[in-house]
Amino acid sequence: MSGHHIIPMKFLLGTAGALFVLTALTVAVHYIHIPAPFNIIVAIGIAVLKASLVAMFFMGLFWDKKINTIALMLSVVFFVLMVGVTMLDTMFRDKPFGIYDKAPAPPATTSAAP
Amino acid sequence: MTNTTKPVAIREFPVEEFPETHYLNATKGLKSWMLTLDHKRIGLMYLASVIFFFFVGGLLALALRLELWEPAQNFMDAETYNRVFTLHGAVMIFLFIIPSIPAALGNIFLPVMLGAKDVAFPRLNLASFYIYLGGAMFTLYSMAHGGIDTGWTFYTPYSTNSGSAVISMTFGVFIMGFSSILTGVNFITTVHKMRAPGQTWGKLPLFVWSLYATGVIQVLATPVLAITLLLLIMERTLGIGIFDPALGGDPVLFQHFFWFYSHPAVYIMIVPGFGIISELISTFSRKVIFGYWAVALSSLAIAFIGFLVWGHHMFTSGQSELSTVVFSFLTFFVGLPTGIKIMNWVATMYRGSIWLATPMLYAIEFLFLFTIGGLTGIMLGALSVDIHLHDTYYVVAHFHYVMMGGTVFAFLGGLHYWWPKFTGKMYNETLAKIASVILFIGFNMTFLPQFVMGSQGMPRRYFGYLEQFQTLHQYSTVGSWILGVGFLLVAYYLIVSLVKGAKAPSNPWGGRSLEWMTSSPMPAHNFEHVPVVIHGPYDHHQPIAEFRMGIDAPHHDTTHA
Amino acid sequence: MSHTDSMSANAHVQHHFVDSEQQFDSAKLGMWLFLVTEVLFFGGLFVAYIVYRAWNPELFTLAATQLDTVMGGINTLVLIGSSLTMALAIRYAQLNDAKKSFWMLGATIAAALVFMVIKYFEYTHKFHLGIFPGEAYTFTGIDHPKAHIFFSIYYMMTGLHGIHVLIGIGLIGWLMVKTKRGAFSAEYYTPVEITGLYWHLVDLIWIFLFPLLYLID
Ligand SMILES: [Cu+2]
Is 1.10.1240.10 the CATH number for C19-214? Predict the structure, then answer.
């Protein structure tokens, strides 16, 4: 398939419809107050789904050359790496392993140096 | 579009030697240069600019070394010293080394090596040059308005309240980031879409592979620098408090942001140099490169792993112990693809018929210097060792061995290798070899003592020092003068060659990649035909005529209507 | 396509490309690579957001109550609608229907302007309360020492996004002029296509900003 694909009307309208519904859903979910970790997961999950719809059907990646999809995925992968690796620091600042103070304490009573 | 596939005749196109018209004189006048869309002319303008800024940065370095002749104040005060080393770093990194190989030499040779008439987006290419100049203007402006004393790393919180011209400087770097991004976008697209018939991924010259990997890093990392500097500017103007601890922010977060760009940026600086070395070693050993795919893909591997190791700059910053351990561990992995390259270059030279021309001399010097730079990098990546060596002259010596001994020597090698091609003139080979040896001696004399000083505890960026370091500092300063003499000699014979050098043949070194299959200097559209690639770029065992195949260029009468 | 009419149809092909197809594919890949840089550009802000939210979850719950979910929600719908009209503008350009393409571009700009007007009311309302970015922050309604950092992040993210909307308005306005002049056709509509990609990315970023800023509980 070439990049010149003319996207069928039903895909465009269907995508827009799905996006409207998902927006309503994400607001509705907000008001029913899902408990702590799951509310973020649901909100991000819906956002990812919406973003995928936009990328696949509005931006035409579904029909397009694969390299363009690879480019977008690369940006997502490197963003996730940036977040993940940064959080190895920010989430563990106050959890030392004690690697700096593992030096054995000098024995209290030792014989003098030979 | 073409559903009438006419049979095309592939034939040999002999190269026209010493052409009367070429890209340098195809059109005349200042305007034809200022508004040119020709990648070769844009590359030349970049080349002139980066050499100018290398000269500026070099003078700053000589001033620093002279000041360090004595332990106490010599001829500049501490305030000035801070500004000069910051400017030396910023000019060398953002104005010289990042654009040096890709935007100058890469611009000139990438399309030619692919057999294309130009890069994919010639207008963006010209725009990137002017954006670069605009960023440079901001740098000069901040120099004139008090300079900046934060070091090129702009660490918060000092950069948020230092009285110097931080905003204009960071804004200049922000602008230059866009120039770098445009170059990266242009090169990736060009490699994907503009290859000549037969120029498959497996036949790309390794310089092209290295520029491709560099482009990937430029596209993925540079935007993060842009947002970091924008946040820093906002921190200074509005006090947004994300990085400033006085406002509840976290300065270590700034370091994460900064090094997420700046560690991969080290590979923006060195990977194109690897590409040049691959070209040089194969051409001057008259042998096919050992392990083509290993060398090509190791560039991409470096590009990827390079994004996961930034925290090795932050072992003493107060980041969590978990991340110091993880970053130290991951840093060792960068050594693998780099080691693969070194091994493959040496294996290529093994039993080759080595011609020790000036470019090859630089390549061999590169192998020495870069290996030292790389191995000391492994030591600095080791957590326990780095705690001792962090922010000492050991680090200064390490990154100069990588950046200068690596990239600058590769850049000089490439410059001498392709000089006959893009200027059409030969330089004085004897003087060139002498200069190369002088640079090698001067370089080692400048930076070897710094390893010793650093391991003995001499901190970097210090204006004064203990008297015990004076001898080593003086060795280093004398070395910097030798380096200066070497560079002056290089400038001398290159200028002489432009004025009265012998005319260069199309293929003075017996290279096999496409740039040697067209005239010196190249015609305005690189080739008078459409090249067709049959053999790999290092197949020295194949007859040279088979590297000059092509088909007649289609007429483009309709395009200029 | 016969040879005779390809003469005029290829007038847009620049000399360094072999054919229209190569030029189109290159422009599109170039635009996608630019969008990659945009993702990572905003990505930096998202990292700051995530780090601070992980450090201060209670702050984000508190501060989000100052954001108007209704206005944010309407803006989300407006941007989705504008993405639809943009996609339709490309479709009509591909179908050689310049007139409809022109009107769809106009509708996209109209939606973008609505978005900016709503944003304007949101901003001015906050300024009225003393919710400014950075040190100018004087609002006392949120009892948290780092409340100003949340709003700094909020203003950086939505402000940068707003600047992208304004740039998009400029680009689409330029497309309208070119469309009016008959510059685009089924053979050549590359600027419409790649501006569309840009516009969808602006929408895409808002799709994440909306739940992350407005819908925290
Ligand atoms: Cu590093």
Answer: no
